[in-house]
Queue: 2 jobs
Job 1
Amino acid sequence: MTDRVDTHIAGISGATVAVAAHPENLSDLLARLARSRDGKVTIRDIAIALQDRSFGAFLLVFALPNLVPLPPGATFVLGLPLVFIAWQMFASAQGRVYFPRRIGDYGVEASTFQLVVDRLVPWLRKAEKLVVPRFWFLESRIAERVIGFLALVLAVVIFLPIPLGNWPPAVALAIIGFTHSQRDGVGVTLGCLLGVVSLLVAGFVVYTACAVLMLVV
């Protein structure tokens, strides 16, 4: 009898480990959320459904608009949400993104959310063939804070009006965000390396601009 109980517990533990190692794809999670809601789907609902993966998912969402050509000054608006998310990833004691009530209560009707998900899911599933759970090293909150600090620095650089210095950090944050939500340690590492390179490029741009300005003055 004891052997059977031990075997049953071992089976449950093995299943738990398997689920942790291979979390639900972001596309499947969004599709399930769309099916399970009858009323309005709020930003808070999405954050709760994503749990600790919400940091990466919302980094991706707010980094994408910074990848298209924008008029001067637009990064002041589009960079602020990234700073907000990255700061929480670095400093928050909670395991997911927290939004103030007014922002968290914002949402759309379930039918509208379903239409958005239907358009988004095919693209996500194509990307998920390349970005898969592997070599995940951010199980501890400390490790995630380190990534959060880098994300915060990148978000601040995006927020600043640096000529040609905003796009590379936005690409790095988009990669970090998507791969973080998919538990892809390789992708997060590549995103971080690209982030460091983009910071060096931004620093070079600022240094060159200051040097030219000093020569002119």
Job 2
Amino acid sequence: MAVPQFRTSINEYLEGLPEPVLMRLYSSPATCLAIFRLFPPMVQLFIMAMLYSDKGVHPSDLSAWVRAGSRRKELEAFEKLRSMHLIKETGTTISLQKTFRTSMRAALTGGDTTNSFGVPCDTEDKHRVDVAFLDEHANRQWELILHFMVGTETERVPNDGVVSLLQHSGLMEGTSARNMRITNAGFQFLLLDVNGQIWTLLLQYLNMAEDLQMDPVEVLHFLFMLGSLELGQDYSLVALSDTQKMMLDDLRDYGIVYQRKASSRRFYPTRLATTLTTDAGAQKSAASTMTDAIGDAPAAVGGFGSGFVILETNFKMYAYTDSPLQIAVLNLFAHLKSRFRNMVSGQITRESVRRALLNGITADQIIAYLNVHAHEQMRRRGPPVLPPTVVDQIRLWQLEMERMKTVEGYLFSDFKNNYEYDTTVTYAKELGVVVWENKNKGTFFVTKEGNQQIVDFVRRKVHAG
């Protein structure tokens, strides 16, 4: 299966899959139900209208369900169904794709015979595992990843699989776990809610599936199954494929599932798993629950009326939080001076912004983060939420950084004559390593990588001549 282009939306990912792969996905009732829950309401309406019609329906019958003024949404719904290969258009009728229709009916009527909704354990777990324990496990594992991303010094670091995934996804960069640092994409990742963060990592996990010798369809089946499981219920491994059993090792590290040990024959989905396929409305409620369960993770509180940052026109900043994660994120672009029990104070300075810019964080991302997490008192002032002088200055500091670009390399000068200079610089240009040239002064600058080739050329050709 071809690896789709990097996406942060599961809907976009699914639309990029070829038809044969989608047909394999539609063979699972749990997967069909999960995909259905991810669709916009009008797409769901059209699917339900066609679900029990074996002969198909006329397009005008579907349009009759659409109220006036929603023509654009109707066209978008049909386009979504076509992109997912969910409808067959023959003559004057439209029918639901047969495999999807059969699986969806089984999901709704309890006719699933493939165990796609998991197999609950029929024996009691000797170790007490309740919802509170699962939330604590999810909290601990997910916060470990976020702490690692923002550079908080912790007693332990994520496992190699997590570090590799963060690096592969472009959220962090470095040669080892000890010198990894957050990237531009990583900071944007922190602006997402918990569900968005989880899917961002899982989509990259899917992209790596073939390298890990996993069947991407089996991976998707398992992820969608997790979204339909009951929080607090333990499930048996008996219905899982070899690929899905391999996934448990990684999903434990993300906090999506809990297993007492790797050899355990049962697993528990956490709240991170059971909210994977919630609709937009339920997602907001679930994210609020995750805010309590996952503590004060920066992305968990964003966008749900829990702003904590006050920014003044003199660049002073006050953040009403005691979360180490939120404080670590602020420290990426602000100079923090004082910390109290439930507040930190600091200032946005030229040096702190330049440090962020050098780490790949953009001015727009800093502004977006401050906007998302602005305190309610700042929002009462009306738009703009942030002081315009501060916003403009942050952007100017970025422009200031972009005026000059440093390149490591070597300067060549003091040639014996014009022939020696012309011959050497022409060769350097052919290699594409010339960064700067001043012909009048007989000097030019090459990249670090091109230096040795130019030196060898001078020794071999010029001096020999």
